[in-house]
Amino acid sequence: MIRLAALTALTMLAFAANSLLNREALADGQTGPAVFALIRVVSGALCLWVLVRLRGGPSRPILRPWGVVSLALYVLGFSFAYVTLPAGVGALILFGGVQVTMFAGAVLGGERVAWPRWAGAAVAFAGLVWLLWPGAQAAPPVAGALLMLAAALGWGVYSLLGRGVPDPLAATASNFVWAVPLAVLAYAVLPDAASARGALLAVVSGAVTSGLGYALWYAILPRLTATLAAVAQLSVPVIATAGGIALLGEELNARFLIATLLVLGGIGLSLLRPPQRRIGSSGS
Q1: Distances (CA, A) of 282 to 242, 278, 279
Q2: Percentage of residues in the chain with pLDDT exceeding 70?
């Protein structure tokens, strides 16, 4: 159990580190978002595909068009958003937006949604509205927020599409491979440069915190309950915020703190199970 907890914590650190690495690479102005995203996707594709082949997986990447498009939307939106967003704010918008997207997907898919999930989604959405309300003091830049919401939409759709996939690691590796041409296209349309340090951070983000991070997550996920897995992911925006303050000199303001409490509290509320009515009990 201790080993599982340590591996889960390591995975959450990897996920949060993606925000810190991306923001740090772009902060000096010498590395652009398009080339960072391209290097990240290529590095992630190579790392994941090597892992799949070492495990005896399929010899060719399988094309799942919607999975590829949604993954590319996430990676590109994520990278371009961090031109202006602090690491913690970006992680919170991403995490809250993913949860709202997946909730909407469940409703549109005809799933029966219990009342705690309705209430939790409403609270989390209210937190995002509070954070992003235009014209308010300390509100994040509009362009960056919209780009991160696009990334959240991409990752939320990607997660919905990935439910029930028999081999999620092979599927993710394939999607990374097929997302490379889209990243190349984005770089061709909006070319920019990378410093040696920025390129190194992009490789770490792609191969280590994305590639190895996803591989570790899929390895431990079968040993976690759905609720525990969801609760563990609540730590990602918190870790990214703490890292942004400690490593990047970012500031924590009251507006962001309130939004964080609302978003994470709403997601936590959505994990509650309504009391089950006993069969044969008397009802009013």
Answers
A1: 51, 9, 9
A2: 93
